[in-house]
Amino acid sequence: MLLSRLGTTLLLMLSGISFAFVYALNLEQGQDKGALYHLLNPVIQDIVTAEAPADDLLPAPTSLSAMVAENRAALRRAVFVSEEQRDGMIRRTLVVGPGETLTSRLMAGGITRTEAAKALEAMRAYVNPRKIAVGQKVAVLFKRGDTGEVFSGLELRADPTKLVTVARLSEDGFKGQTKDVIPEKHRFAMRATVQDGIYESGLRAGIPAGVLNTLIKSYSYQVDFQREIKPGDRFETLYEQATDEDGHGVGDATLIYAALQVGPKILPIYRVAMPAGSFEYYDATGKSVRKGLLRTPVEGAHLTSGFGMRLHPILGFSRMHKGVDFGAPSGAPIYAAGAGIVEEAGYHSGYGRYIRLRHNGHLSTAYAHLRQFGRGITRGARINQGDVIGYVGASGIATGPHLHYEVLVDNQQVNPLTVNVATNIVLEGKQLMAFQDWRSKVHSAFEQLVAEAEARRGVKVAHNQINGEVAR
Ligand SMILES: [Zn+2]
Predict the structure, then answer these.
(1) 468 CA → ligand 1 middle, Å
(2) Which of 120, 198, 304, 433 lies at a C-alpha separation of 20 to 30 Å from 402?
(3) Fold that domain 87-180 belongs to in CATH
(4) pLDDT value for 64
């Protein structure tokens, strides 16, 4: 910023303009580079194109003071990134930059220190003016009066759901208040390439964590993430999320569609609302992706010991291994393999911290050696498939952190890897036709968003080029 100011000062001096002019341009402190650029660009052009005779470099005194006044006004305007006029009010927006205070920005925008202090005092009960985040947009309101513009209030979105307003009451009084705002929802299309894990790669691409969790859970019935997903595999998502005033996503997001490349295959899933207000994800053929039980109830795990007779690693003699072991780091979340009721959650000698879930009259699953139980996991609690019920540990008799997982049919342990408990929903007839219609709508929405994003990126590149030229 200093460099750019030096540069413009130099330019102006070279243009042969008096120091009074340079002083006027540097008078106001705190304007950011962008604002300075917007301000100076037309001014410099004016100077360059106004070809004054060599012997008459200085404008006449009256004209000079007019120019100084005009440039002060231009500086004030440059503080604001946008201006709108409505119902006799002028609404100008400023952005608080790094190292700036709202007071300094307001003063740069032509508001006196006293007026700014009064307005901010009225705001204090709802948002601390000293803790305004960098990048916060603040609308500054002016009323056109007989003697010019009168500063008449402020408006800012303190968070996406809260609008704080400050309005002038009288000659020198301001009143603050706050109002709840329902944030707008928008759809986002994202494409990502797997580098390390799908979760990490997705986060880097800007996909919300909640969307990635849903995606991983939804695919975990058919995809073994550990073995089947390779670096370079691609995936795409369409999700819906509330947005702040700048259109950035905030809060929980809903996954609407995803497609995951697994080797040569592309596996799409689509969210479909169900009559009871719940929802399901379906594959392209209209079959629900959710099966009876999750294939791997712990994320990023690999099978370390199968079901059947084995030499026990600690006890030292052969005995039946009544479940399967998944190696996973201590603390990794364990998901409920199916929806149901917590039948047991407690310490169980060799099993250590142990949870058993009942899914229906015949089927239950058990989870052992937990480090910790999930929040609210107590006997009788109702849980959904994929809920975090606990965390991997090594409690009880265990050589190291792992999940011992059992599937029980009529209270008898069976091999979790071969048991057939699949209960897919398959859409047919009218439902299937409605689904196919929805599926093509989802695809066109995705393609349209991608096209828009690419167009925007094009503009961004052009914009950077413009700035680059200015910098030179
Ligand atoms: Zn085991």
Answers:
(1) 62
(2) 198
(3) Nuclear Transport Factor 2; Chain: A, (3.10.450)
(4) 65
